Amino acid sequence: MFNHLPTKRRNVLRALVAGGIAFFVAPFAYAIEQFVSFQGALGGNKTAKLSAAELTPDSPSKLVEVEGEPVIVVREADNQIRAFTATCTHLGCIVSFKPQMPGFYCKCHSGRYDANGVNIPGTRPKSPLTELLVKQNADDLEISLTPKGTGSASS
Ligand code: FES
């Protein structure tokens, strides 16, 4: 391509062309790498593990994190253990479990959800919390971001 030019000038031009190509290709390569690693995170099976004994009548809920997402695990009055996304569907504050309601409460704008995570009409949240799959083996609990009903085994 640059054979008619002196060797030194030819090498400089080749380096400039290679650098220019790298300059335009690098952002696309970076974006593709980020997309691929993000897809891998979504497909990951990361879970939070805790003991059912940590959920007592005096402290029936616990906030855990699964893949960076806050999740609230609750022991209901009938001893059923359930997990829900803990991010309020209004503006993203973290909800807390209120056994006396029973249900979930968001202190940011007094948002309320019933015990099934369904938003209560008249409060700010307009969509429910998502119930998540809880696998229980004796006292060991394993919570993933898999919505309940879409996984292979739940309790
Ligand atoms: S962020 Fe929860 S009610 Fe507004």
How do the helices and strands line up, and which of them pair or pack?
Elements: H1 7-43, E1 48-51, E2 61-66, E3 69-75, E4 81-85, E5 96-98, E6 103-106, E7 111-114, E8 131-137, E9 140-147
Antiparallel strand pairs: 1-9, 2-3, 3-4, 4-8, 5-6, 6-7, 8-9
Structure description:
This protein has 155 residues and is α+β, with helices and mostly antiparallel strands. It has one helix at residues 7-43, and strands at residues 48-51, 61-66, 69-75, 81-85, 96-98, 103-106, 111-114, 131-137, 140-147. It is elongated, with a radius of gyration of 26 Å. The chain folds into two domains: 1-43; 48-147, 3-layer Sandwich (Rieske Iron-sulfur Protein), CATH 2.102.10.10. Strands 1-9-8-4-3-2 form a six-stranded antiparallel beta sheet, with no helix packed on it. A three-stranded antiparallel beta sheet has the order 5-6-7, with no helix packed on it. A hairpin with a 2-residue loop joins strand 8 (131-137) and strand 9. Bound molecules: FE2/S2 (inorganic) cluster. FE2/S2 (inorganic) cluster binds at residues 88, 90-93, 106, 108-109, 111, 124-125.
